[in-house]
Amino acid sequence: MTTPRPTAELSADEARRIALRAQGFLGVPDRRAGVRGVLRHLGAIQLDTISVLARSHELVPYARLGAVGRKTVEDAYWRDTHSFEYWSHAACILPIEEWPHFAFRRRAYRNRPHWNHDLPDGAYDQVIKQLRAEGPLTATELGGAKKTNDWWDWSGSKVAVERALMYGEVVCVERRGWKRLYDLAERAVPQELLHDELDDTECLRRLVRLAGRSLGVGTRADIADYHRLKGEQVDAVIADSGLIPVVVEGWGKPAWADPEALETPPRGRHRTTLLSPFDSLIWERSRTERIFGFTHRLEAYVPKQKRVYGYFAMPVLAGGRLVGRVDPAREGRTLVAKQVTLDGPKAIPAVAQALAEAATWVDCTDVRVERVDAPGLREPLAKELAHALG
């Protein structure tokens, strides 16, 4: 791919601020648009099974909007078919209007020669028939999710309905007690979107454009990672995506920016908050290191004795910087900061503020700090927390 001549040069600080604004952390958020506005602004919100303070898809709008009710979050996603769940960056909640733009991925799944689970004869047709007659249904209601207690040992009906989900014949219309609730796409997806099957080039062009808008500015790898596209897929459409080639100080790689992000300097109030490890601001490790000088790694799947920062260490965002980490837990109505890492004494007020707000959001009345990486900062942090909790 021949990279077009850059049309603008950005300092590292300008790029950081553009990224923060694009992700909803700089400037005043549109609270009238609420959670649905956050979803459409980001383009994808990742789902994950881990729940410490709350599940990640709840933490993402909280990080931008503040203490929005958790039921409000769920209703915003699932009521009135405003979204659907599909494979994007990972399993993600996506705005329903983007259904046509994932046709390329549905086609790829239909043409996939190998699968991890064998599909029993007749199981697919049976699942479709049952959903048509009774749906929406969970995998349990369709005949059971697993054959044994092993998480990977899916039942025939679970294999069938997940295959139908990937093909686009079935849609996950809600998470109920963390179980997917399935329905036929012909019922769940608005008709004007359901049959709008775009070719692969149109789909990829749209997703590359969306990724650039949601990132503000990014390298080829950043843009590809957002919806887990292949590099060559990005290369094929980026010249026609509407993104503008730019040079960013210190990045050392070609980059592209959302033209709207370049129109006005990014200014406004910074958000101070805990971030889910699955937040799209910090999805891609090399991008996080490049923009913030901060190494982030989820350690939930690392053996306990090898963890450095904790099971679900949540980066702390303040003043447009990542200033520390908190590994949280809950004991009754106490939010426990099991392990806190601070970027020096100046980070104490921000970390205390973030912890106090998070505690209030999850209906905790107290915060207990157990361990601080710099022991001498534990007492000052405890005092600042007492003040923040009032």
How far is the N terminus from the C terminus?
58 Å
CA-based gyration radius: 22 Å
What composes the largest sheet? 5 strands, mixed
Number of helices: 16
What does it look like?
Strand 13, helix 15 and strand 14 (366-369) form a beta-alpha-beta unit. By secondary structure, the protein is of the alpha+beta class. The chain has helices at 12-22, 34-42, 56-65, 70-78, 103-110, 123-134, 156-167, 185-188, 191-194, 200-215, 220-226, 231-237, 259-263, 285-292, 348-361, 378-389, and strands at residues 8-10, 45-46, 83-87, 91-95, 170-176, 179-184, 217-219, 244-248, 255-257, 273-274, 314-318, 321-331, 334-342, 366-369. The protein contains 16 helices and 14 strands. It is globular and about 65 Å long. The strands form four sheets. A five-stranded mixed sheet has the order 10-11-12-13-14, sandwiched between helices. The chain has a four-stranded mixed sheet with strand order 1-8-9-7.
Nutshell version of this structure?
The protein is α+β, with helices and mostly antiparallel strands. 38% of the residues lie in helices and 18% in strands.
Give the tags.
390 residues, alpha+beta, five-stranded mixed β-sheet, four-stranded mixed β-sheet, 38% helix
Q: How does the SSE layout of this entry go?
A:
Elements: E1 8-10, H1 12-22, H2 34-42, E2 45-46, H3 56-65, H4 70-78, E3 83-87, E4 91-95, H5 103-110, H6 123-134, H7 156-167, E5 170-176, E6 179-184, H8 185-188, H9 191-194, H10 200-215, E7 217-219, H11 220-226, H12 231-237, E8 244-248, E9 255-257, H13 259-263, E10 273-274, H14 285-292, E11 314-318, E12 321-331, E13 334-342, H15 348-361, E14 366-369, H16 378-389
Parallel strand pairs: 1-8, 13-14
Antiparallel strand pairs: 2-4, 3-4, 5-6, 7-9, 8-9, 10-11, 11-12, 12-13
Helix pairs in contact: 2-4, 6-7, 10-11, 10-12, 11-12, 15-16
